[in-house]
């Protein structure tokens, strides 16, 4: 069975997406370590008069194992049956969470027992590359770079090499209760503050706005909106830390002043508290992740979602984005078949089906124009936020950032001097990085 490279993007158009439920197809364990070299031949397609098109050939007797978490398994079970029917390559889907996948690759990979394809968040990429677990996305590199969101492509690229086949993106934006809030109230952060001053009734636990205050993941826009950065050279140079720059101090000063509309300790603004207040109609604007779209779709009031607005300096902040992708195992005996499958499950039509089944917001460009996407305004709002997002840094040194910045956020929220506090945080980050490299 062979697949023309130029036509792979059209393959899913031939799929029958109303697939009947099926169980995993059989497939044995893989063994050996694939070299990742795609076997290609030249041929002529008479229907297009394109001569010498490259073709990717599944290996003789190929069979695949795919690992994914429980939320991705139902879709994979269905699409695997189609792939087998189309290419004659059996595919077995096994439930494995991302942490378990990474652990098992260390032992099962060399033993020839690991999956041929993994599904991992992009912040696992540095470890996966360092461990030699994954192959580059080489054969479909041009298509992937052209068809997927730039943020997603950057997230699955390491040292200039593209590895992943992006599936879905996650970020956060502003959920709001349409019975309580007008979109004009969300036009700027100053507008949000003004609305909250009018709406707040803290004695009855009513708040205009709330976010997780001691979580740097959600507080990052108060840095990016003031042109501060984490690491230099697009978050690849840990020797250059910008979290105590003049912009960072300005952003944290604005953040600190918001305590006027949210008079509580940072540790008390938990996810559970926020969610309960929002669902009860006591929180009007909730900064939270797109993974809550399903939870907020069946409330007794209509919920909207819009991107984060600009700050008083006129800058629109960027949020962190997380990207989950398929990766081809470096230990696969059948790397060509695995690459074909990774491409097959990330076509436009396949990702729409995955969205319908699991709610994964596709990382492809142009998905906001799909009818099924437009039917949920919250999803449309999330996709707009993706345009103002950056991949969360995936270098090892990022792990040294979270705790010092969480402490800094709590202290700044309490009223400590932003500059002094950020200086201490950066020093702690530097010491952690030094320890990491000893």
From TrEMBL:
- Compositional bias (Gly residues) spans? 25-35
Family from the record: Belongs to the bacterial solute-binding protein 1 family.
> Does the keyword field hold Hydrolase?
no
Tell me a GO cellular component. Answer: ATP-binding cassette (ABC) transporter complex, substrate-binding subunit-containing
Q: State the organism of origin.
A: Paenibacillus antibioticophila
- Keyword terms, alphabetized: Signal, Transport
Could you give a GO molecular-function term held by this entry?
Answer: maltose binding
Do you know which Pfam families this protein is assigned to? SBP_bac_8 (PF13416)
Q: Where is this region: Disordered?
A: 25-57
Signal peptide residues on this chain, from the entry's feature table: 1-21
Q: Where is the composition biased (Polar residues)?
A: 39-51
- Which InterPro entries has this protein been placed in? SBP (IPR006059)
Please name the GO terms of the biological process aspect recorded for this protein, alphabetically.
Answer: maltodextrin transmembrane transport; maltose transport
Protein name per Swiss-Prot or TrEMBL: Cyclodextrin-binding protein
Family matches, as Gene3D superfamilies:
Periplasmic binding protein-like II
């Amino acid at each position: 069975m062979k697949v023309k490279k130029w036509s792979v993007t059209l393959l899913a158009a031939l799929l029958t997406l109303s697939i009947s439920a099926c169980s995993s197809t059989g497939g044995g364990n893989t063994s050996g370590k694939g070299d990742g070299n795609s076997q290609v031949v030249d041929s002529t397609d008479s229907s297009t008069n394109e001569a010498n098109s490259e073709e990717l050939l599944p290996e003789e007797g190929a069979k695949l194992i795919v690992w994914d978490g429980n939320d991705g398994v139902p879709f994979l079970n269905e699409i695997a049956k189609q792939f087998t029917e189309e290419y004659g390559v059996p595919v077995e889907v096994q439930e494995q969470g991302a942490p378990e996948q990474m652990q098992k690759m260390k032992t099962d990979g060399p033993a020839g027992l690991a999956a041929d394809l993994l599904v991992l968040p992009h912040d696992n990429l540095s470890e996966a590359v360092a461990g030699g677990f994954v192959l580059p996305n080489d054969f479909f590199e041009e298509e992937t770079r052209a068809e997927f969101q730039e943020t997603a492509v950057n997230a699955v690229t390491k040292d200039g090499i593209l590895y992943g086949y992006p599936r879905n993106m996650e970020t956060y934006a502003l959920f709001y209760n349409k019975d309580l809030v007008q979109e004009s109230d969300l036009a700027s952060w100053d507008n949000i503050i003004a609305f909250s001053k009018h709406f707040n009734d803290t004695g009855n636990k009513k708040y205009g706005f709330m976010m997780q205050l001691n979580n740097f993941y959600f507080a990052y826009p108060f840095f990016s909106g003031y042109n501060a950065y984490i690491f230099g050279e697009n978050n690849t140079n840990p020797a250059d830390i910008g979290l105590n720059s003049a912009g960072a101090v300005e952003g944290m000063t604005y953040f600190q002043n918001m305590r006027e509309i949210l008079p509580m300790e940072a540790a008390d603004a938990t996810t559970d508290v926020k969610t309960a207040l929002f669902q009860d109609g006591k929180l009007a604007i909730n900064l939270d992740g797109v993974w809550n779209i399903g939870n907020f779709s069946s409330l007794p009031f209509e919920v909207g979602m819009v991107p984060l607005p600009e700050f008083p300096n006129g800058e629109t902040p960027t949020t962190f984005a997380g990207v989950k992708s398929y990766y081809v195992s470096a230990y696969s005996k059948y790397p060509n078949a695995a690459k074909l499958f990774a491409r097959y499950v990330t076509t436009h039509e396949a990702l729409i089906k995955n969205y319908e089944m699991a709610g994964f917001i596709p990382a492809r460009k142009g998905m906001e124009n799909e009818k099924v996407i437009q039917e949920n305004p919250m999803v449309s709002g999330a996709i707009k936020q993706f345009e103002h997002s950056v991949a969360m840094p995936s270098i090892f040194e990022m792990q040294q950032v979270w705790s010092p910045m969480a402490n800094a956020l709590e202290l700044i929220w309490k009223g400590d001097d932003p500059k002094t506090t950020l200086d201490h945080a950066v020093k702690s980050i530097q010491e952690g990085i030094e320890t990491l490299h000893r």
